[in-house]
Design a protein that fits this description.
Blueprint: E1 2-5, H1 9-22, H2 26-38, H3 42-61, E2 71-79, E3 82-85, H4 89-103, E4 128-134, E5 139-146, H5 148-151, E6 155-159, H6 164-179, E7 187-195, H7 197-207, H8 219-233, E8 248-258, E9 263-270, E10 276-280
């Protein structure tokens, strides 16, 4: 058994919040460059160049890459041989978010009441926290900053087994088509299949953590991802919705078993600022 004082979590989460918003992953930058080389629309090329320049400035000027610095979503992999001491684990995570969003000059986007009052909490808490218990004595924390524009274009649909894979693909492509330029394309399309209503949505969210240069480990799903990506990029939406061949950079699928009467499908769209960073304690 390994003891970890929760006070050690605070500075780690603080830095992850800042780094996720300042430093875009090399996998995203490489994909933008790859699609720029294939793009035929002058407008689309100009938009991709602006995206790349924006990310460069975010690094050199130490500032957020986007004004919507998002909800702080924290994925926890807690080793079963870890004993957390010294206080409330979730409060430590939220304190890290408070400090990170304040010290990093990141926009506070959380409101305490979803409908009637909608008063800003002032510190971007509470974070949305998902915890998995895993073997070992390590604690892995991943902070994803999820903006509202892309999140608003996401959807869960309870489909029938009779709809088949073609029905699933049609739904995913249609979801992107209906989204248009709203999620700030080029996008990453996260897809969750199976489980039940809520698990499919979580799978779609988790799928966005897979690096864009890492193919699906299952060949059959890698082929489905490639087909969806090809169809999405034929929609002509293009970067920022201004037309072109680059509507999406990647399609990532995660799946789980499901009930014989159900076929849940979730689409969680991410903008080109696919922001997430991880650390292990």
């Amino acid at each position: 058994m390994r003891d970890i004082d929760v006070s050690k979590i605070v500075p780690v989460v603080r830095q992850l919040c800042i780094d996720a918003n300042y430093y875009i992953g090399e996998d995203v930058l490489d994909k933008l460059r790859e699609y720029r080389a294939k793009e035929e629309s002058p407008t689309a090329i100009e938009v991709i160049d602006l995206c790349l320049k924006n990310y460069e400035l975010a690094v050199t000027e130490k500032m957020p890459s986007c004004q919507d610095t998002g909800i702080a979503i924290v994925f926890v992999e807690l080793g079963q041989d870890v004993h957390l001491t010294g206080g409330d684990f979730y409060e430590a995570i939220n304190e890290g978010v408070r400090q990170g969003y304040k010290d990093g000059y990141l926009r506070m986007s959380m409101v305490d009441d979803p409908i009637i009052v909608r008063k800003n909490t002032g510190d971007n808490t509470p974070a949305i926290i998902y915890t998995d218990i895993v073997p070992g004595d390590k604690l892995k924390l991943t902070v994803a900053a999820k903006g509202g524009g892309s999140e608003n274009m996401s959807e869960v649909k309870m489909m029938k087994a009779a709809d088949g894979i073609e029905g699933v693909i049609d739904f995913i492509v249609d979801r992107v088509k209906r989204s248009g330029g709203n999620p700030c394309p080029p996008i990453v399309v996260g897809v969750g299949l199976g489980g039940n209503f809520e698990q499919s949505a979580l799978l779609a969210k988790k799928s966005l953590l897979r690096p864009l240069d890492v193919p699906n480990p299952e060949e059959k799903w890698a082929k489905v991802e490639a087909e969806i990506l090809e169809r999405v990029n034929k929609l002509g939406i293009g970067p920022q919705g201004l037309g072109g061949r680059t509507t999406a950079l990647a399609v990532n699928i995660l799946h789980k078993p499901c009930h014989i009467a159900s076929m849940p499908v979730a689409v969680n769209i991410q903008c080109h600022a696919d922001r997430h960073k991880s650390a292990v304690i």
